[in-house]
Structure formats: structure tokens, C-alpha cells
Automatic annotation (TrEMBL):
One Pfam short name: Methyltransf_11
Lineage: Bacteria, Pseudomonadati, Pseudomonadota, Alphaproteobacteria, Hyphomicrobiales
InterPro entries, A to Z: Methyltransf_11 (IPR013216), SAM-dependent_MTases_sf (IPR029063)
Start and end residues of each Methyltransferase type domain: 48-165
Organism per entry: Enhydrobacter aerosaccus
Protein's recorded name: Methyltransferase type 11 domain-containing protein
């Protein structure tokens, strides 16, 4: 028997992660658009990116916020367990500091300035060293599926009253084409949407919050063949896992299939104001 398992090893694949994750980039951009839509007129903000990885979501959100002339200060926190990922997150944040603001000064008034502070926290997302109700915006994309819905309580703990929680979580229904064509290939068991929605509803009731939006959307990317897809999954640091092994003959037969294969994710998108 030949094992065919990829487990989360983000520490080793930080440098290849960005190039290997086009879908994650699409989702980060989509979630960022939702976030800034519900944060109009913000003057100062504390943002926590949970499971921030290399900073795709932080960059997508803050590059939009920085075009808002009203924003005068921001405190950014990136939370992840992989120090190598956090190092790239910090580089991205440093790049944000060099971005020009969009507003044009009127007559002789000085150009607007904005204060931006950041801190990388190497911590488990289920136990973050942040104070209760300390963040205006807590967000997470493509990270929570590595834990359980109980993490929602921890994320909600650090959201201020009238602050917001925005999430993009891969759920059951993901990897549909792979499952259909290669049924014996061990695949990560994504939780169904209702498991996450139940945790969100509990938090909403506890904090008397308001559900801003709740949608499910599919995002996909095509690869030349299964071998190419599996290589990509390995380079992103872990997206497929399995409790069982696949026999060598079956695995080799799968790899002989040279037809294109799509990698698809079903994403649960949630916005909650507390």
C-alpha cells in the first residue's frame, strides 16, 4: 500500500504558497470587496487576519482601505502558526506602507497621512493572545477548515461591539471533480456548511449580532492533469489529506490519466456584525 496524504506543512512551503494558490487569491479579493463595502467612512481600524498565511487577504483588504481618504490609522495583526508564512505577511504589510494614498490635496493643504502599525502573532487561531473585544474587524480566508467550528467563539471574543467578523471557509462539496473521477484518492473531509452556521448562530445570539450576509460560492482552477494538480497541492503546503492509503496500482493508474482536471472549492462566505 502506498500512502497518498498531504498534511498541513505550511512552514516548509511558504515561498511556493503564493504561486500555488490562485483560487485563494480569487477568494481573498472577493472577500475583501465584501469587507470594504460594509466598512465605509472608517477613520481608524484594528484588523486581525486569522490564519493569515502570506497575507493575501490582508493585502487585498488594506490596499482598498488605503484608497479611503478618511482612514487615518490602522493596527494590523496577522495570526498564524507558521513563522515562515508570517515573515512574508510582514513583507506584504511593509509594502502597503509604501503605497500612495489616492486622495489629492486641495489647494495648498498638505497630503493626507496615515499611521499603520502591524504585529505578527505566531499563535494557534483557537487561542489568540489578544484582548477581549479589541478588534474592529476580524477576518479569515481559507484557514478555519484546519480547525473546528468551536474556533468561531475565539474569533468572536476579540470582536468589538459593533465590530465585524468576515469569513471565507471551504466546506463540503469542495473537490467535486477530483472525487468524481478519482474516487479512491484520499481527500480532505471538509465540514458541511451547517456545522459552521450553527457556530455562527450561537455567537450571533450570545452577542445579539446581525448576520450581514451568508452565501455559498464555487471557485475553480484547471490543471493539465492529476499529477500537475497533486504537485500544486503539495506546493501550497497542504490541501488534501486522508485517513486511508491508496494502493499503488490504483494510484499509478490515476496518474496515467493525462486529461485536464479542475480543482474546485465550495466556499461559505459569512459576514456578521456583533
Amino acid at each position: 500500500m502506498m500512502p497518498c496524504t498531504v498534511t498541513p506543512v505550511f512552514e516548509q512551503f511558504a515561498t511556493s504558497y503564493d504561486a500555488a494558490t490562485p483560487i485563494q487569491s480569487q477568494v481573498a479579493e472577493h472577500l475583501a470587496q465584501l469587507i470594504v463595502h460594509y466598512h465605509t467612512g472608517v477613520t481608524d481600524i484594528c484588523v486581525v487576519d486569522v490564519g493569515c498565511g502570506t497575507g493575501k487577504l490582508t493585502q487585498a483588504v488594506m490596499s482598498k482601505f488605503l484608497q479611503n481618504a478618511a482612514l487615518t490609522s490602522a493596527q494590523l495583526y496577522g495570526v498564524d502558526t507558521a513563522a515562515s508564512m508570517l515573515a512574508i505577511w510582514q513583507q506584504r504589510v511593509a509594502h502597503l506602507l509604501s503605497m500612495p494614498l489616492s486622495s489629492t490635496p486641495v489647494s495648498s493643504l498638505p497630503a493626507p497621512t496615515m499611521t499603520l502599525h502591524s504585529q505578527a502573532l505566531c499563535a494557534n487561531m483557537a487561542d489568540m493572545a489578544l484582548a477581549n473585544q479589541s478588534a474592529d474587524l476580524v477576518m479569515s480566508s481559507f484557514a478555519l477548515h484546519w480547525t473546528s467550528p468551536s474556533v468561531i467563539a475565539e474569533l468572536g471574543r476579540i470582536v468589538k461591539t459593533k465590530g465585524q467578523l468576515h469569513l471565507a471557509i471551504p466546506v463540503a462539496g469542495s473537490f467535486y471533480e477530483v472525487r468524481l473521477r478519482f474516487p479512491k484518492l484520499p481527500i480532505f473531509d471538509f465540514l458541511p456548511s451547517h456545522a459552521w452556521l450553527a457556530a455562527i448562530e450561537t455567537l450571533q445570539q450570545q452577542r445579539q449580532g446581525t448576520l450581514i450576509y451568508h452565501t455559498e460560492q464555487s471557485f475553480a482552477f484547471s490543471y493539465d492533469n492529476l499529477k500537475s494538480l497533486l504537485k500544486n497541492l503539495k506546493q501550497m503546503g497542504g490541501a488534501v489529506s486522508g485517513k486511508d492509503s491508496i494502493d499503488t496500482a490504483t494510484f499509478r493508474r490515476y496518474l496515467q490519466d493525462q486529461s485536464p482536471i479542475g480543482l474546485d472549492y465550495q466556499l461559505l462566505m459569512i459576514g456578521l456584525q456583533l
